[in-house]
Amino acid sequence: MKTISIAVIPGDGIGPEVVAEGMKVLKTIEQLDPSISFSFTEFPWGCEYYLEHGRMMAADGMEQLKGFDAIYLGAVGYPGVPDHISLRDLLLTIRKEFDQYVNLRPVTLLNPELTPLKGKNAEDIDFLVIRENSEGEYAGAGDRLFKGRPEEVVLQTGVFSRKGTERIIRYAYDEARRSGRTLTSVSKANALNYSMVFWDEVFEEVGREYPDIQTYSYLVDAASLYFVTEPERFEIVVTSNLFGDILTDIGAAIAGGMGLAAGANINPTREFPSMFEPVHGSAPNIAGKGIANPLAAIWSVSQMMDFFGEETWGKRILDAIQEILAEPANLTSDLGGTATTEMAGDRFVEILTANSLAGPA
Ligand code: NAD
Ligand code: IPM
Ligand code: MN
Protein backbone atom coordinates (compact mmCIF):
# COMPACT_ATOMS: atom_id res chain seq x y z
CA MET A 1 0.00 0.00 0.00
CA LYS A 2 1.23 3.47 -0.91
CA THR A 3 0.87 6.05 1.86
CA ILE A 4 1.13 9.70 0.95
CA SER A 5 1.56 12.16 3.80
CA ILE A 6 -0.12 15.48 3.16
CA ALA A 7 0.30 18.72 5.07
CA VAL A 8 -2.94 20.64 4.73
CA ILE A 9 -2.83 24.44 4.96
CA PRO A 10 -6.38 25.70 4.38
CA GLY A 11 -5.26 29.32 4.88
CA ASP A 12 -7.51 32.33 4.52
CA GLY A 13 -10.88 33.40 3.15
CA ILE A 14 -12.34 30.79 0.82
CA GLY A 15 -9.21 28.65 1.24
CA PRO A 16 -10.71 26.47 4.03
CA GLU A 17 -14.04 26.25 2.16
CA VAL A 18 -12.55 24.82 -1.03
CA VAL A 19 -9.90 22.70 0.69
CA ALA A 20 -12.66 20.95 2.65
CA GLU A 21 -14.11 19.73 -0.65
CA GLY A 22 -10.71 18.69 -2.00
CA MET A 23 -10.22 16.65 1.18
CA LYS A 24 -13.50 14.85 0.51
CA VAL A 25 -12.11 13.85 -2.86
CA LEU A 26 -8.88 12.55 -1.34
CA LYS A 27 -10.83 10.59 1.28
CA THR A 28 -13.03 9.13 -1.45
CA ILE A 29 -9.99 7.96 -3.40
CA GLU A 30 -8.63 6.33 -0.28
CA GLN A 31 -11.92 4.51 0.30
CA LEU A 32 -12.22 3.32 -3.27
CA ASP A 33 -8.63 2.30 -3.83
CA PRO A 34 -7.11 -0.21 -1.41
CA SER A 35 -3.63 0.50 -2.76
CA ILE A 36 -3.56 4.16 -1.65
CA SER A 37 -3.83 5.79 1.72
CA PHE A 38 -3.28 9.35 2.82
CA SER A 39 -2.30 10.80 6.15
CA PHE A 40 -3.43 14.35 6.76
CA THR A 41 -1.94 16.89 9.14
CA GLU A 42 -3.62 20.26 9.25
CA PHE A 43 -1.79 23.50 9.99
CA PRO A 44 -3.75 26.56 11.15
CA TRP A 45 -1.39 29.02 9.49
CA GLY A 46 -2.44 32.18 7.70
CA CYS A 47 -3.67 35.67 8.48
CA GLU A 48 -5.67 34.81 11.61
CA TYR A 49 -2.65 33.00 12.97
CA TYR A 50 -0.61 36.11 12.17
CA LEU A 51 -2.95 38.38 14.11
CA GLU A 52 -2.60 36.10 17.12
CA HIS A 53 1.09 35.16 16.93
CA GLY A 54 2.71 37.91 14.87
CA ARG A 55 3.83 35.43 12.24
CA MET A 56 2.24 33.59 9.31
CA MET A 57 3.46 30.14 10.34
CA ALA A 58 5.14 28.57 13.34
CA ALA A 59 8.75 29.59 13.87
CA ASP A 60 9.86 26.08 12.88
CA GLY A 61 7.12 25.79 10.25
CA MET A 62 9.39 24.91 7.35
CA GLU A 63 11.06 22.26 9.48
CA GLN A 64 7.63 20.79 10.28
CA LEU A 65 6.61 20.72 6.62
CA LYS A 66 9.86 19.28 5.30
CA GLY A 67 9.05 15.65 5.96
CA PHE A 68 5.68 15.54 4.16
CA ASP A 69 5.22 14.14 0.68
CA ALA A 70 2.94 16.98 -0.37
CA ILE A 71 1.34 20.21 0.77
CA TYR A 72 -2.29 20.96 -0.05
CA LEU A 73 -2.94 24.68 0.24
CA GLY A 74 -6.12 26.76 -0.03
CA ALA A 75 -5.29 30.45 -0.27
CA VAL A 76 -3.29 33.05 1.58
CA GLY A 77 -3.94 36.75 2.22
CA TYR A 78 -6.70 38.72 3.87
CA PRO A 79 -7.51 42.36 4.58
CA GLY A 80 -5.94 43.24 7.92
CA VAL A 81 -2.51 41.85 7.11
CA PRO A 82 -0.47 43.52 4.37
CA ASP A 83 -0.37 41.22 1.33
CA HIS A 84 3.35 41.66 0.77
CA ILE A 85 3.95 40.23 4.24
CA SER A 86 1.34 37.45 4.34
CA LEU A 87 2.21 36.10 0.92
CA ARG A 88 5.96 36.41 1.34
CA ASP A 89 6.04 34.71 4.73
CA LEU A 90 3.88 31.73 3.83
CA LEU A 91 3.20 31.00 0.17
CA LEU A 92 6.34 32.45 -1.38
CA THR A 93 8.58 31.10 1.39
CA ILE A 94 7.31 27.57 0.78
CA ARG A 95 7.70 27.83 -3.00
CA LYS A 96 11.21 29.22 -2.69
CA GLU A 97 12.68 27.31 0.23
CA PHE A 98 11.36 23.97 -0.97
CA ASP A 99 12.73 24.86 -4.38
CA GLN A 100 9.38 24.28 -6.08
CA TYR A 101 10.77 25.89 -9.17
CA VAL A 102 8.18 24.56 -11.58
CA ASN A 103 4.65 25.95 -11.49
CA LEU A 104 2.33 23.90 -13.69
CA ARG A 105 -0.87 25.70 -14.61
CA PRO A 106 -3.09 23.96 -17.14
CA VAL A 107 -5.39 26.06 -19.30
CA THR A 108 -7.90 23.52 -20.53
CA LEU A 109 -11.44 24.24 -21.55
CA LEU A 110 -13.47 21.29 -20.32
CA ASN A 111 -16.83 22.67 -21.40
CA PRO A 112 -17.08 24.89 -24.49
CA GLU A 113 -19.91 26.92 -22.97
CA LEU A 114 -17.60 28.26 -20.30
CA THR A 115 -15.30 30.32 -22.49
CA PRO A 116 -16.17 33.95 -23.11
CA LEU A 117 -14.30 33.71 -26.41
CA LYS A 118 -16.58 33.69 -29.41
CA GLY A 119 -16.15 30.73 -31.73
CA LYS A 120 -13.56 28.91 -29.60
CA ASN A 121 -14.01 25.35 -28.43
CA ALA A 122 -12.21 22.71 -26.41
CA GLU A 123 -9.59 21.96 -29.09
CA ASP A 124 -8.64 25.64 -29.23
CA ILE A 125 -8.04 26.07 -25.52
CA ASP A 126 -5.85 23.26 -24.27
CA PHE A 127 -2.38 24.17 -23.13
CA LEU A 128 -0.03 24.09 -20.16
CA VAL A 129 1.74 27.10 -18.74
CA ILE A 130 5.05 26.27 -17.09
CA ARG A 131 5.91 29.22 -14.91
CA GLU A 132 9.32 29.80 -13.32
CA ASN A 133 8.48 29.76 -9.63
CA SER A 134 11.61 30.41 -7.60
CA GLU A 135 13.29 33.64 -8.70
CA GLY A 136 12.96 36.22 -11.49
CA GLU A 137 10.79 39.21 -10.68
CA TYR A 138 9.74 37.51 -7.41
CA ALA A 139 13.28 37.20 -6.03
CA GLY A 140 12.42 39.73 -3.33
CA ALA A 141 15.63 41.67 -3.97
CA GLY A 142 15.62 45.42 -3.78
CA ASP A 143 15.72 48.39 -1.49
CA ARG A 144 13.81 51.47 -0.45
CA LEU A 145 15.96 54.47 0.19
CA PHE A 146 15.12 57.88 1.68
CA LYS A 147 11.64 56.70 2.57
CA GLY A 148 9.05 59.48 2.38
CA ARG A 149 11.57 62.07 1.24
CA PRO A 150 11.47 63.82 -2.14
CA GLU A 151 14.59 61.92 -3.19
CA GLU A 152 13.01 58.56 -2.35
CA VAL A 153 14.25 55.71 -4.55
CA VAL A 154 12.76 52.22 -4.74
CA LEU A 155 14.50 49.27 -6.37
CA GLN A 156 12.88 45.93 -7.20
CA THR A 157 15.45 43.73 -8.83
CA GLY A 158 14.71 40.78 -11.06
CA VAL A 159 17.12 37.93 -10.47
CA PHE A 160 17.63 35.48 -13.33
CA SER A 161 20.36 32.98 -12.58
CA ARG A 162 21.77 30.71 -15.25
CA LYS A 163 20.85 27.69 -13.14
CA GLY A 164 17.32 28.95 -12.52
CA THR A 165 16.65 29.95 -16.09
CA GLU A 166 18.17 26.85 -17.66
CA ARG A 167 16.35 24.40 -15.43
CA ILE A 168 12.87 25.77 -16.05
CA ILE A 169 13.45 26.02 -19.79
CA ARG A 170 14.88 22.53 -19.87
CA TYR A 171 11.89 21.23 -17.91
CA ALA A 172 9.60 22.80 -20.51
CA TYR A 173 11.52 21.28 -23.44
CA ASP A 174 11.37 17.89 -21.75
CA GLU A 175 7.65 18.25 -21.22
CA ALA A 176 7.15 19.28 -24.86
CA ARG A 177 9.10 16.21 -25.96
CA ARG A 178 7.32 13.88 -23.55
CA SER A 179 3.90 15.05 -24.66
CA GLY A 180 4.70 15.64 -28.33
CA ARG A 181 3.67 19.29 -28.24
CA THR A 182 5.10 22.61 -29.39
CA LEU A 183 6.86 24.95 -27.00
CA THR A 184 6.35 28.72 -26.76
CA SER A 185 8.61 30.98 -24.73
CA VAL A 186 7.14 34.25 -23.50
CA SER A 187 9.52 37.08 -22.61
CA LYS A 188 10.11 40.80 -23.14
CA ALA A 189 13.62 41.35 -24.45
CA ASN A 190 12.70 44.55 -26.30
CA ALA A 191 12.35 46.38 -22.99
CA LEU A 192 14.06 44.27 -20.30
CA ASN A 193 17.49 44.52 -21.80
CA TYR A 194 19.32 42.30 -19.31
CA SER A 195 16.97 39.70 -17.90
CA MET A 196 14.87 38.93 -20.93
CA VAL A 197 17.71 39.11 -23.44
CA PHE A 198 19.35 36.47 -21.27
CA TRP A 199 16.10 34.45 -21.09
CA ASP A 200 15.82 34.41 -24.88
CA GLU A 201 19.46 33.37 -25.26
CA VAL A 202 19.01 30.48 -22.85
CA PHE A 203 15.80 29.42 -24.62
CA GLU A 204 17.77 29.20 -27.86
CA GLU A 205 20.84 27.57 -26.31
CA VAL A 206 18.92 24.82 -24.55
CA GLY A 207 16.78 24.41 -27.65
CA ARG A 208 19.82 23.21 -29.61
CA GLU A 209 19.57 19.99 -27.61
CA TYR A 210 15.95 19.58 -28.73
CA PRO A 211 15.96 19.94 -32.51
CA ASP A 212 12.80 17.82 -32.66
CA ILE A 213 10.73 20.42 -30.78
CA GLN A 214 8.88 23.09 -32.71
CA THR A 215 9.34 26.38 -30.85
CA TYR A 216 7.89 29.87 -30.87
CA SER A 217 8.96 32.95 -28.98
CA TYR A 218 6.58 35.83 -28.24
CA LEU A 219 6.78 39.10 -26.41
CA VAL A 220 4.50 39.05 -23.39
CA ASP A 221 2.22 41.79 -24.69
CA ALA A 222 1.61 39.93 -27.94
CA ALA A 223 1.23 36.64 -26.04
CA SER A 224 -1.52 38.26 -23.93
CA LEU A 225 -3.28 39.22 -27.15
CA TYR A 226 -3.00 35.72 -28.58
CA PHE A 227 -4.23 34.11 -25.33
CA VAL A 228 -7.51 35.87 -26.08
CA THR A 229 -7.66 35.98 -29.87
CA GLU A 230 -5.83 32.80 -30.89
CA PRO A 231 -5.35 30.50 -27.91
CA GLU A 232 -4.98 27.59 -30.34
CA ARG A 233 -1.42 28.81 -30.95
CA PHE A 234 -0.34 27.47 -27.55
CA GLU A 235 0.51 23.95 -26.41
CA ILE A 236 3.30 24.27 -23.84
CA VAL A 237 4.22 27.77 -22.66
CA VAL A 238 7.29 28.60 -20.59
CA THR A 239 7.69 31.98 -18.99
CA SER A 240 9.03 33.92 -16.03
CA ASN A 241 7.49 34.18 -12.58
CA LEU A 242 5.59 37.47 -12.97
CA PHE A 243 4.58 36.98 -16.58
CA GLY A 244 3.36 33.50 -15.69
CA ASP A 245 1.29 34.89 -12.84
CA ILE A 246 -0.46 37.41 -15.04
CA LEU A 247 -0.86 35.16 -18.07
CA THR A 248 -2.44 32.39 -16.01
CA ASP A 249 -5.21 34.68 -14.79
CA ILE A 250 -5.94 35.37 -18.47
CA GLY A 251 -5.73 31.62 -18.97
CA ALA A 252 -8.29 31.16 -16.19
CA ALA A 253 -10.56 33.75 -17.76
CA ILE A 254 -10.71 31.96 -21.10
CA ALA A 255 -11.19 28.49 -19.63
CA GLY A 256 -14.03 29.01 -17.16
CA GLY A 257 -12.76 31.49 -14.59
CA MET A 258 -10.78 31.51 -11.35
CA GLY A 259 -13.01 28.85 -9.86
CA LEU A 260 -11.58 26.31 -12.29
CA ALA A 261 -7.88 27.18 -12.46
CA ALA A 262 -5.50 24.77 -10.76
CA GLY A 263 -1.80 24.89 -10.06
CA ALA A 264 1.00 22.63 -8.90
CA ASN A 265 4.24 23.92 -7.41
CA ILE A 266 6.69 21.17 -8.18
CA ASN A 267 10.12 20.30 -6.88
CA PRO A 268 11.12 17.78 -9.56
CA THR A 269 13.98 16.38 -7.48
CA ARG A 270 11.48 15.43 -4.74
CA GLU A 271 14.02 16.51 -2.15
CA PHE A 272 11.25 18.60 -0.55
CA PRO A 273 7.47 18.39 -0.76
CA SER A 274 5.62 19.82 -3.73
CA MET A 275 2.55 21.99 -3.16
CA PHE A 276 -0.85 21.82 -4.81
CA GLU A 277 -3.25 24.76 -4.76
CA PRO A 278 -5.88 26.56 -6.75
CA VAL A 279 -4.58 29.57 -8.70
CA HIS A 280 -7.13 31.85 -7.08
CA GLY A 281 -6.72 33.78 -3.87
CA SER A 282 -8.79 34.06 -0.71
CA ALA A 283 -11.61 35.97 -2.48
CA PRO A 284 -12.64 38.14 0.49
CA ASN A 285 -15.64 39.36 -1.52
CA ILE A 286 -17.31 35.93 -1.29
CA ALA A 287 -15.56 34.38 1.73
CA GLY A 288 -17.80 32.95 4.43
CA LYS A 289 -20.82 32.69 2.17
CA GLY A 290 -20.31 29.08 1.17
CA ILE A 291 -20.51 29.86 -2.54
CA ALA A 292 -16.89 29.54 -3.67
CA ASN A 293 -16.28 27.13 -6.52
CA PRO A 294 -14.33 24.12 -5.18
CA LEU A 295 -13.41 22.74 -8.61
CA ALA A 296 -10.05 24.53 -8.90
CA ALA A 297 -8.99 23.06 -5.57
CA ILE A 298 -10.27 19.67 -6.71
CA TRP A 299 -8.42 19.93 -10.03
CA SER A 300 -5.22 20.50 -8.07
CA VAL A 301 -5.88 17.16 -6.35
CA SER A 302 -5.81 15.66 -9.86
CA GLN A 303 -2.38 17.23 -10.36
CA MET A 304 -1.31 15.75 -7.03
CA MET A 305 -2.40 12.28 -8.15
CA ASP A 306 -0.43 12.66 -11.41
CA PHE A 307 2.64 13.75 -9.46
CA PHE A 308 2.50 10.58 -7.35
CA GLY A 309 2.15 8.34 -10.39
CA GLU A 310 -1.59 7.82 -9.88
CA GLU A 311 -2.54 9.07 -13.33
CA THR A 312 -5.66 6.93 -13.42
CA TRP A 313 -7.03 8.93 -10.51
CA GLY A 314 -5.75 12.16 -12.05
CA LYS A 315 -7.75 11.42 -15.16
CA ARG A 316 -10.82 10.23 -13.29
CA ILE A 317 -10.92 13.54 -11.43
CA LEU A 318 -10.68 15.52 -14.69
CA ASP A 319 -13.38 13.37 -16.26
CA ALA A 320 -15.63 13.94 -13.26
CA ILE A 321 -15.02 17.72 -13.48
CA GLN A 322 -16.01 17.56 -17.12
CA GLU A 323 -19.14 15.66 -16.18
CA ILE A 324 -20.25 18.00 -13.40
CA LEU A 325 -19.70 20.98 -15.70
CA ALA A 326 -22.57 19.65 -17.81
CA GLU A 327 -24.92 19.83 -14.80
CA PRO A 328 -25.68 23.51 -14.28
CA ALA A 329 -27.78 22.87 -11.18
CA ASN A 330 -24.76 21.42 -9.41
CA LEU A 331 -22.40 24.30 -10.15
CA THR A 332 -21.63 27.37 -8.08
CA SER A 333 -22.78 30.83 -9.12
CA ASP A 334 -19.52 31.83 -10.85
CA LEU A 335 -20.41 29.14 -13.41
CA GLY A 336 -24.04 30.17 -13.58
CA GLY A 337 -25.38 27.63 -11.08
CA THR A 338 -27.06 27.88 -7.70
CA ALA A 339 -25.18 25.19 -5.77
CA THR A 340 -23.21 25.92 -2.61
CA THR A 341 -19.54 24.95 -2.31
CA GLU A 342 -20.56 21.92 -0.29
CA MET A 343 -23.29 20.80 -2.69
CA ALA A 344 -20.91 21.02 -5.65
CA GLY A 345 -18.29 19.04 -3.69
CA ASP A 346 -20.80 16.37 -2.67
CA ARG A 347 -22.10 15.97 -6.20
CA PHE A 348 -18.53 15.76 -7.47
CA VAL A 349 -17.78 12.93 -5.07
CA GLU A 350 -20.93 11.11 -6.21
CA ILE A 351 -19.84 11.30 -9.85
CA LEU A 352 -16.28 10.23 -9.08
CA THR A 353 -17.50 7.31 -6.99
CA ALA A 354 -20.03 6.12 -9.56
CA ASN A 355 -17.50 6.32 -12.39
CA SER A 356 -14.76 4.47 -10.58
CA LEU A 357 -17.09 1.72 -9.40
CA ALA A 358 -18.32 1.38 -12.98
CA GLY A 359 -14.91 0.43 -14.30
CA PRO A 360 -11.45 1.55 -15.36
CA ALA A 361 -10.85 5.19 -16.28
P1 NAD B 1 -8.86 36.25 -5.93
O1 NAD B 1 -8.37 35.18 -6.81
O2 NAD B 1 -9.01 35.91 -4.49
O3 NAD B 1 -10.28 36.77 -6.48
C1 NAD B 1 -10.43 37.34 -7.78
C2 NAD B 1 -11.88 37.21 -8.22
O4 NAD B 1 -12.18 35.84 -8.53
C3 NAD B 1 -12.90 37.63 -7.16
O5 NAD B 1 -13.99 38.23 -7.79
C4 NAD B 1 -13.32 36.31 -6.54
O6 NAD B 1 -14.61 36.33 -5.97
C5 NAD B 1 -13.24 35.36 -7.73
N1 NAD B 1 -12.92 33.99 -7.30
C6 NAD B 1 -11.70 33.55 -6.91
N2 NAD B 1 -11.76 32.27 -6.58
C7 NAD B 1 -13.02 31.87 -6.74
C8 NAD B 1 -13.71 30.63 -6.54
N3 NAD B 1 -13.08 29.54 -6.11
N4 NAD B 1 -15.04 30.60 -6.81
C9 NAD B 1 -15.68 31.67 -7.26
N5 NAD B 1 -15.08 32.88 -7.47
C10 NAD B 1 -13.76 32.97 -7.21
O7 NAD B 1 -7.89 37.50 -6.12
P2 NAD B 1 -7.81 38.90 -5.32
O8 NAD B 1 -9.17 39.35 -4.95
O9 NAD B 1 -6.95 39.76 -6.14
O10 NAD B 1 -7.00 38.54 -4.01
C11 NAD B 1 -7.59 38.30 -2.72
C12 NAD B 1 -6.49 37.92 -1.73
O11 NAD B 1 -5.91 36.67 -2.10
C13 NAD B 1 -5.32 38.91 -1.70
O12 NAD B 1 -4.87 38.93 -0.37
C14 NAD B 1 -4.30 38.28 -2.60
O13 NAD B 1 -2.99 38.70 -2.34
C15 NAD B 1 -4.50 36.83 -2.30
N6 NAD B 1 -4.10 35.87 -3.34
C16 NAD B 1 -3.59 34.69 -2.89
C17 NAD B 1 -3.29 33.69 -3.81
C18 NAD B 1 -2.76 32.40 -3.30
O14 NAD B 1 -2.86 32.10 -2.14
N7 NAD B 1 -2.23 31.55 -4.15
C19 NAD B 1 -3.54 33.90 -5.16
C20 NAD B 1 -4.07 35.12 -5.59
C21 NAD B 1 -4.36 36.10 -4.66
C1 IPM C 1 -0.66 33.20 -7.52
C2 IPM C 1 -0.72 34.43 -6.66
C3 IPM C 1 0.62 34.71 -6.01
C4 IPM C 1 1.66 34.88 -7.10
C5 IPM C 1 0.65 35.93 -5.09
C6 IPM C 1 -0.50 35.89 -4.13
C7 IPM C 1 1.96 36.13 -4.42
O1 IPM C 1 -1.15 35.52 -7.42
O2 IPM C 1 -0.36 32.13 -6.97
O3 IPM C 1 -0.95 33.29 -8.72
O4 IPM C 1 1.75 35.95 -7.70
O5 IPM C 1 2.36 33.92 -7.36
MN1 MN D 1 -1.82 35.02 -9.41
In short:
With 361 residues, this protein is α/β, with parallel strands linked by helices. Helices cover 40% and strands 22% of the residues.
Protein described:
The chain has 361 residues and is an alpha/beta fold. The chain has 2 domains: 1-103 and 256-361, Isopropylmalate Dehydrogenase, CATH 3.40.718.10; 116-254, 3-Layer(aba) Sandwich (Isopropylmalate Dehydrogenase), CATH 3.40.718.10. The protein is 40% helix and 22% strand. It has 11 helices and 12 strands. The protein has helices at residues 15-32, 47-53, 61-66, 83-97, 162-179, 195-207, 220-229, 241-254, 295-307, 311-324, 341-358, and strands at residues 2-11, 36-42, 70-75, 102-108, 126-132, 136-145, 153-159, 183-187, 215-219, 236-239, 262-266, 274-278. The strands form 2 sheets. The protein has a 10-stranded mixed sheet with strand order 2-1-3-12-11-4-5-10-8-9, sandwiched between helices. A two-stranded antiparallel sheet has the order 6-7. The longest helix has 18 residues, at 15-32. It is globular. The relative contact order is 0.16. The chain binds nicotinamide-adenine-dinucleotide, 3-isopropylmalic acid (IPM) and manganese (II) ion. Residues 14, 18, 75-78, 83, 87, 91, 258-259, 277, 280-286, 292-293, 296, 334 line the site of nicotinamide-adenine-dinucleotide (NAD).
